[in-house]
Every structure is written in structure tokens, then in C-alpha cells.
Amino acid sequence: MEHPVEDNYECENNMEDDDSEEFEDANDFTVELDVKDMTLHRALEEAKQAIFYFFNNQFTEAKQLMSPYATVSVYHALGHAIFLFLEAILTVEPAAIRSASKALKDALVVCNRFRKKNTIGESIGKMVKKNRYEQYTEMEAHAELCHAECLLLKSMLTFMEDETLSSFIKAGIKIRSCFNSYKECQQILFKRQWENEETKLHFESGVKMGIGTFNLMISLLPSRIIKLLEFIGFSGHKDQGLSELIEGYQLNGIRQILCIMTLLGYNLIVMHVLSHRDGDTVICQEMLNKQLKKHPDGVWFLFFQGRLEFMKGNLNESIKYYTRSWKSQDLWPQFHHVCFWELLWVHCLKCEWREALKYSTILSEKSKWSKCLYMYQKAVIMIMMKDDLTFEEQLERDNLMRDVPKYKQRIAGKSLPMEKFAIKKSERYFSQKKLLILPVLELMFMWNLLKIMKNFSIAGDIITLIEAAETEVDSNLKPSKYDHDNKCLVYLLKGACLRHMGAPHQAIHYFEKVIGFQKEIVEDHYLVPYAIVELALVEWEQGHKEKAYLALEDAKKNYTSYSCESRLHFRIHTALSELKVELKKTKH
Asked: Which residue ranges does the record annotate as region Disordered (predicted)?
């Protein structure tokens, strides 16, 4: 890992510190607390206890333990801010976002109070020589680490506070400052003489969590973004990121649990959506076994166990764990919505449309994350139900489709890709005389959910639906200008299912049909680059790596301005990164 660039680091610290200056006086409270007894050791012990409470669904107890000393202890300030941050993320309520933002600003002030101060002579010295990391006290080292974590959370919250381009720039400055702060912490870890092994262990777990997460997340970004980030000092290496996080998980430090959560999120969610391969389910099961012994009713670990069962194709087990997860706590009903989202798709894969409709109704009525997408999802589930709808439900379906465009969100002046996709399809519904072909399966494909078609017991009902639609579009009984769009959608879905079911030659046949019709497609131009990527993955799985590489480069460079383009570019980048490694090994 390269050394931090100290002059940039100093400059950026000054920029982000501007955010917290106004709170300096507000935090110099005169509340009578047992401040002298709040040692670093005690702060770490209470933070560990708060973490136990939190993952045991004892959210109130965790908050009550952190809040009283939030103005005098870096760990209490950070812990208090984290609880408010999570509440803001889950509720998306303006008042909750403001509270979390203030708590994080206040926490930054507390951290700054304990961070290492440089005299004018030391600051001038830093311009010509490296930091003297061995001079950091234990308290100063931990304050630096907590400061980095506060910055990361604050930058994430900035996106929610003010969805403008300027807020993105501010967030970018904070993220870079955070990245440099973690690199400073890494140097402190390596170069400081640690007398107390316990505080070193807690510090080390935090450094590994921060450095590992940054490396992992940056490595996932498309190459054109990575080149820009490298220009301004960021770098990311997936293997290094995973290695740091696994080492952090193996340490019994205070941030071990954060390493676990990051690894679970990466392997069970990020890899599933962005990669053609599965995550490391073995290490996930190992971590979940340990955590569920410690927290048998923990909402987070029950959720991830449900996700793991889903990836294995054990849909009934998945339903059981998701249901246990949402029923395990009521303090944050918004977390129920995360489980309902998962349950919606599990029931769709089982073709249990009435059950899926139940969860999509709750999301469309109560969740604030994307009303536009939730309404579209509910409408397309109702389309799949066909004659099972009452007359009133048919009217509701049409009204939902009309209302989809009304709820479009804009972030930094841009619409969300999946919302734009939903709006296009809702308009198409009416231009095709209230008809969409396999719209739920189309969404499943977009979310990469067809990966579990390798489980033949699941694949049967889905393939039956696709084959019925194939017969319908090929017969051309209801001609329209979208004939080729509809045919190509069915061919892409069938090819994707066949690829996951281990029928590569049949899959290739369907992908080539899509590519062959590209000039006839009227609106759904995304189908062609997505088909090319699917074709590349089949060739790769067949051992034709050069062919796969050329196809991925074709999809990346020769197609643009189609629906969900950035989503596909993330997948292309992930595939190319892995394929390049394999090609290098083959040549050597």
C-alpha cells in the first residue's frame, strides 16, 4: 500500500473540518458526567457491549449506552451517530437525516478534539518529511480511526441530504479525505510502538475494515471511473480488499463485526447482482453459524442466512429465515421492507403471484425508497396473474401503470436507471394495448435473479412460462410494431435460463437470435448488449476465453444510450477483471 500524500491530506482535512466548525461551541457541553473515568479502555468496553446489544436487537439499550458520553468520548460519539445514521438510511425521513447529519458533525468535533495536534514547526516539517507516527498516543490513534469512520458515514449521508451535483462534489472530497485518513491509520499501526495489545487489536481491526472495504468497493467500479479515481489518488484491488477484510474477521477486535457485515454483503448481495459467479458461500456460512449462535434472533444475521439459502436455491428455507428476521424486531419497521423485498422475489420465483402481490403492496404503500419502482413491480405482478384478478384489481393495475411516472426521483439532476426503465415500460403497456411480455421475469433478469435457475426444481415453472410466451410471440397472432422487441426479450430470457441450467449450445442459439434482430428492435435496444454479455459468459464457461473477451469488449465499446447501461457496465467490468487474470495465467 502506498504512503499517504500528507500535503493533500492536510488540505482535505481543512476542507472537511469546515463542516464541523459551527458545532465546536455546541459540543463543549457542561453536562456533569464522569468524564475522568471515561478512559479509552472503558470506552472500548462499552462500545463492545453496545455492539452486542445492537446485533441482539436490543437497539434501545445500545443507544442508551452510547448517548450520555457522546460529547466526550470518540467511541460513544461514533456509536451514537451510527444509530442515527442507520435510522436515516432505513426511514429516508428528512427529520431523521437531519438528526444523523448533526450527530455526525458533532462526532467529528469530538474526534478532532482528541486527534494529534501539530505545532507550526511540525506542520512545516511535514512538508519536507514524513509524519512521525511513533509519536501518536493511543488516544490520538483511535481518534484518527473514528474520525475516518465518521467521514465515511457523513459522505454517504451527504447524498441523501441534498441531491445536487454540489453535494456529490462535497461527498467526494469527504470520501477522499476519509481514504487518506485510513491510510494514515495504516501507517500508525505499522510504525507506532504499541504497549497495549488489546487497544492495538481493536485499532488493527478498524484499519483492516476500512482499507479492505475501500479496496473492494473501488475495484467494483467500471474501468473509466477507476482511471479517474486513480488520477486523484484512489486505488482499489479486490484481492487485497478481501484479504484485509478476512484478516479483520479473524481478529477478535471491536470492528470484527463490521468486517463480517461487509463480507456478507459483498458475497451474498453485491456478487449476486454484479457478477456471473457466486460469492464465497463457505466463509459466509462459517460466519453466520458463529453469529447466529451468539445472536439467535439477530435481525441482520437471520436476513443474511435467508439470503444464503436463497442463493443455494432453498427457497422455502429462505422464506423461513426472512420471515423470522422481520418478525424479530419492531423498533425499525423499515427493516421489514428489506425482508419484504426479498420475499417478493422468492415468491415470484415460485410463481406464487398472490403472495408476491401481498409484499409488493406493502412496499408500494409504506416504503419511501422508490415508490416509482414499487408501483411498477406491483402492476407487473398483477399482469402475471392474468385471469386471477378481480375487476377492481384490473382497474388498480391500470391506475398503477398510469401513476408510475409521477413518482420519478432525481438525484444530482439525473433519474435513477431502474426508475427510467419502469417508466418506459409503463408507457409501453398502454402503447401495446395493455400488454407486456413476461415483465416480472424481465425484472428478475435485470436483478440477476435467474442465476438460481441452476436449481432445476425452481427452473421448471419459469421455463414453462417462457415457452408459453415464446409460442405466443412466434405465432404473431397480434401483430404490432414491437414484435421484434417482444421476441428478443423472450429469447434473451430463455437463453439466460438455459445458460444457468447447463445447456450452453441451446443458450447460444437464443442469444444469437437476439443479436441477429438488432436492426429490427424498435425500443428495447438494451436487449442486444445484454445478449452479447450473456453470450460471452457462455463462451467463457465453455473454455473459449479469447472469444469471451472479444464479446465483452464489443458490448462495452460499441453500444451506448440504452436502458440500464451503467448496470451492465458494472457486470462487464467484473467479468473482464476476472477474465484478464485467467488469460494471464493461461499465457504463463
From this structure: 1-23
Which grid coordinates are listed for 377? 413491480
Q: Following CA atoms 88, 91, 96, 100 in sequence, which dihedral angle do they give, to the nearest 10 degrees?
A: -10
Is the separation of the CB atoms in 324 and 316 below 8 Å? Answer: no
Residue 256 identity: Q
Pull the grid cell for residue 101. Answer: 447529519
d(CA 336, CA 467): 35
Residue with cell 453470450: 535
| Nine-digit cell string for 97 | 437525516
Contact criterion met (CB below 8 Å) for 439 and 425 = yes
List pLDDT tens digits, range 150-206.
988 887 787 666 555 566 666 667 778 888 889 999 999 999 999 899 999 999 999
What is the DSSP secondary structure assignment for residue 2, as one 8-state letter? Answer: P
Strand partners, 415: 410
How far are the Cα atoms of 165, 263, 453 from residue 571, in angstroms, in the given order? 26, 19, 19
The per-residue pLDDT for range 309-328, each reduced to its tens digit, is: 999 999 999 999 999 999 99
Looking only at the bridges linking them, the beta strands covering 410-411 and 414-415 are: antiparallel
Listing DSSP states for 296-328 in one string gives: TT-HHHHHHHHHHHHHHT-HHHHHHHHHHHHHT
